[in-house]
Amino acid sequence: MHAASVKDERLQDYSQRMEELATRLGLDYYPVDFELVPNNFMMEIAVYGLPVRMPHWSFGIRYIHQLIRQGMGHSRIFEVMFPGDPCHAYLVNNKTLPENTLVVAHVLGHADFSKNNHLFAHFMQMAGGHILEQSAARAHQIDAALEEHGQERVEAILDAALALEPHIDVNQELHRAPYSTERIPAPQKLEGAFSRRFNALPGEAAPPLAEKQARKASVPPQPEYDLLWFIANYAPDLEGWERDIFLAVREESYYFYPVFACQIMNEGWASYWHARLLREADFLPQDLYLSAIKAHSDVVRPYAADNQLALAVNPYHLGFSIWEDLIEKRGIDAARQIMREEDDFGFIRNYLTPELAEKLELFVYETQDDGGIKIANRDIHAVRESILAPKFNYGAPRIAASELHVDGSLELVHDFRSDGRGLDVGRAERVLEYIARVWRRPVSLHTVGYSGNARVVTSKR
Length: 461
Hints:
It contains 19 helices and eleven strands. The chain has helices at about 5-25, 40-50, 55-70, 95-115, 120-125, 130-150, 150-165, 195-200, 225-235, 240-260, 265-280, 285-300, 315-330, 330-340, 345-350, 355-360, 380-390, 415-420, 425-440, and strands at about 30-35, 80, 85-90, 185, 215, 365, 375, 400-405, 410-415, 445-450, 455-460. The strands form four sheets. The chain has a four-stranded mixed sheet, with helices on one face. α4 (about 95-115) crosses α12, α7 (about 150-165) runs parallel beside α10 (about 240-260) and α9 (about 225-235) packs antiparallel against α10 (about 240-260). The longest helix is centred in the middle third of the chain and has 22 residues, at about 240-260. The radius of gyration is 27 Å and the shape is globular.
């Protein structure tokens, strides 16, 4: 950590002592590299998802949205932490010393979670623990492609790949072999007495080769939900550098999946530990501790402002509340076992109790024609599933490549039954056009609209 001022020197000292305290309390994590950065750089990291990443116009739009949200007071970025070995954590250099002391403690909680949670460990094993270096190398490859192939061609590939960013299959390995090319043997017919007599007639016996004929394995052999992988491997005219871009976006999507799938658990765990570390850090001055606890209250508050209903779940508040409840009832060892084994789906379904949901005033709401809202359901199962609904399938519609025809045209199918929703057809048409640009053959998508009516969306190419 840079120590260009007295404040930074004190923060460096507190950080070192906080890590020693965390180790004594049983936290186990890969080394953490902390760095103080300007607010505008932190904004870029939050928007791009990484300090250095492939360039694309969509990130500029996100940056403008983030600026507006921050200007309206709806978004405050204290830190960004990247799991790995080592972990990398960025802190804003114009935050107060108490705020950044809290952030250091919070990051240590994240680092403990990311090393020990099974989902994080599995995906890091596949994607590697050096995401910053890998993403920088990919950005360099994109720059080289821009120089060689021009912005228009490169941007068309990035448009399609980033539009499909969440469309991976997390049940598959990151590094997959192509489909088997072995031909499927023709089914053997059971031959009865009549068939034997018929085949014995002059001129009626089947040619010997017919029984040995085999049909070519279909592509894909079953619905393929990893669209980035499928396009990279089976698009008819994709060039090598274009394939590499698809695979690069896919690899980053695999890296970020555990962060998405464990957000409530992870933020709650980090919030529990920053509160406990601050409470037990007897080396902190009293005024700094009080200011840091005030910042903690701001982080884990349930509402956006005083007396305002929270119409979206604050993952810090919800996760912190569940962990506190668990640790009080079962102890820290049981909580650590749950932290290792669960993701948000198991965590919410198994440990958000009816009593806790009532205490936190959680409910399902619906909007009315006049723009108001009303409570639609307080049933605990409905509350849990409402919290989890945006997390299914990486938050994206469940779309599969279903058939690659002999003319190269591609059929996609929306699994709307398991998805539980129709598609925004206008948006689906735009994404389909992105796909058609790189597939370079007709592409169609079988889905339903919001009204439930069957629709087939076809690319214009």
